[in-house]
Amino acid sequence: MSWVYIKDFKDHVGEEVTVKGWLYNKRKSGKIRFLIVRDGTGYVQCVMVKVELPEEEWSKFSDLTQESSLEVTGKIRAEKRAPGGYELDVNHIRIVQIAQDYPITPKEHGVDFLLERRHLWLRSSRQHLIMQVRNEIIKATRDYFYDNGFILIDTPLITGSIGETASTLFETEYYDFGTAFLAQTGQLYLEAACMAHGRVYGFGPSFRAEKSKTRRHLSEYWHVEGEVAFCDNDENIDIQEDYVCYLVLRVLDRCRSQLEGLERDISKLENITKPFHRFSYDDTIKMLQEMGSDIKWGEDLGGDDETILTEKYNKPIFVINYPAQAKAFYMKRHPDNPELVLCSDLLAPEGYGEIIGASQREDDYDLLIKRIREENLPEEAYGWYLDLRKYGSVPHSGFGLGIERTVTWICGLHHIREAIPFPRMLYRLYP
Amino acid sequence: MSWVYIKDFKDHVGEEVTVKGWLYNKRKSGKIRFLIVRDGTGYVQCVMVKVELPEEEWSKFSDLTQESSLEVTGKIRAEKRAPGGYELDVNHIRIVQIAQDYPITPKEHGVDFLLERRHLWLRSSRQHLIMQVRNEIIKATRDYFYDNGFILIDTPLITGSIGETASTLFETEYYDFGTAFLAQTGQLYLEAACMAHGRVYGFGPSFRAEKSKTRRHLSEYWHVEGEVAFCDNDENIDIQEDYVCYLVLRVLDRCRSQLEGLERDISKLENITKPFHRFSYDDTIKMLQEMGSDIKWGEDLGGDDETILTEKYNKPIFVINYPAQAKAFYMKRHPDNPELVLCSDLLAPEGYGEIIGASQREDDYDLLIKRIREENLPEEAYGWYLDLRKYGSVPHSGFGLGIERTVTWICGLHHIREAIPFPRMLYRLYP
């Protein structure tokens, strides 16, 4: 009997097939028994009719418990009223293992209870849908960069150079070299690589040892970073806008049923079209102050600022040209106002906030080394980075998008911890 | 003037365009000057004719040095004799930056010299080609798993559980939890996830603090891992064979010019078709002994064994069912011979050796906990992993492929260090 995944039932109507999976739920109705089986690709209601089954088959219904593994053989029947459109008329059941006391039951559990059992929680329907959308967002990202001529450059995770804030680095001993760091960004390496390939991207985990417990932070997250040679801040913003629109469109196109299952307001995503809002930092500060924020000019936006600002808008917002003091050393000074840098943050609407940080990079050797010294960074570690400003320096820009923040927004989740299979946070290292 | 990448010249013949890039080389011939410019997507010969250029343009030729950045405006002309098929008749040159004393010259450099300047070495033509092939192999991997119904599950890099050999783990302090480890594999997590999604894959960096200095080892490498529920060792081997054939075919299809540039013997890759060789471990040991190896039954294959064995064959070799003592605790015992486990290693031909490790996983709770105790592994760290054998355990199998080893083989490289943008090795943490 041929094994068929539930997602492929449409191609096998009327055939006798075997489904291999786990019992999701079961119920009785008179002389009929229903097994709801999941196989990872979908759910199917398997129908057991007493008069048509020998007693040894019929009695398996009562043995089967939630999450027991089994193989069900039967005939596929189209059934409009069934959730997936098909039912399976059972001929034979092979029980693989009876699960005893599966801990996650249909009742409500606390989130700590579920996170402690993340290895099982992933089987729950909502988590299953989120991971399908995550899979689509990441594949769409790979397709976008590949199709637009970006070469993948995987940047090192263990590094002697530091990208951003030294205070939030995880450390590891590296052979005889002493302390090395887990990368917070691959940007510096991508800057080198864009001088070789023109357009490059990196996509890997980044690490931040931030002792913050918010719904927007993970200690380990997946980070897509693009870098383009001969590209200024405005062109950089255009690329980001194009990429984010592509992501949303792909999910709308290929994961509509998943979004419905997650009860996402799809109309809000259908709104995500060009052009996005583009506000200067100066105007943004004024708007926030008018909304009641106590933010002062010169400060980076806080989480609450991002929330109140983006709740007002139905499209993403680029906040452009921050004060240099609020941003990293490698950003290029604004030619007309040396207090500002050529940069942008992209904030997702509906209160979600920052998903991208971006900037044009300082391409002048003297200005860059001055900034490195001002920040008291270890100059020798940046020798190779400074080389890029000596040997054919060019204007170049790039951006980094946090995948889990994007999944959180697109899926309409409350907290980022559900947007990654096994979250790593201040109080979470297990499973 | 519109900016056009060199790879797109074919669509703009006869047009005046601007190329933005770096000077790769230059030469003179009578009253004509040639600039070979690279822009990351290709190389083009830009032709300067003295009688057609004002002196201020003509004189820029002598100013320009290797790796100077520039923008060249001119008309595209088809030219069969030119390497890419086109030349650019120069009207105007804008020098962005003159590079002084670029350290990598056309003469031969030692590999340490080049590795120390990896941020610049990436610009060299050979390294440029390798990264293009790597980009293709990784995109082909993403496409293969996506198109075959695998859901991406990114597994954690910082972990309390240990996958394989404790002696080769990098450590990091994780908040109040004490010592955590950088993952050597995501397999255990993928086993959990395949119970949720049926077919899953992970693709991220893995870390091995191995104090070995061979042409096959990196301390940080990229690792593709597939895991399938209701899949035995034989079906697992079929998937690997299919996937590796797909990779080679994609590179042959889309990167033929890169392979030619690398002087790869393409006929050797055209040989990579199903079926691959499938040898039992027992037979492999006999063959190796006959070839002069001093390997004894029970030992894992050494690097030299892999070399001599695979030099004899023009297709990859699956070595199947190793002794349990040579392999990891989670592999399932052979039903007919408890000394062996249901596993396979895939060795690439031409002396390249192991690119995949694979096995069916132990799905019996009692046998698994017995193995964990025999290996003196911390039982509490594996509580969640054991759960998978309590709640609907099913037969399942998976495999892990090392991307850089695969790039090394497909590109025909001598050493793995050229197969990753910024290698991390025993003596290499910079740049």
Assign a percent range to the helix content of chain A: 25-40%
Rg of chain A (CA only) = 26 Å
The separation of the N and C termini of chain A measures 37 Å
Work out the count of structural domains of chain A: 2
Oligomer: homodimer
CATH hierarchy: architecture of the largest domain in chain A: 2-Layer Sandwich
CATH superfamily of the largest domain in chain A: Bira Bifunctional Protein, Domain 2
Major sheet of chain A, described briefly? 8 strands, mixed
Q: At the first level of CATH, what is the class of the largest domain in chain A?
A: Alpha Beta
Q: Which fold name fills CATH's third level, the topology of the largest domain in chain A?
A: BirA Bifunctional Protein, domain 2
The interface involving the most residues is between:
A-B, 93 and 93 residues
The main sheet of chain A orders its strands as 7-11-12-19-18-17-14-13
Given the structure, what is the number of helices of chain A?
A: 14
Total beta-strand segments of chain A: 19
Helical/strand content category of chain A: alpha+beta
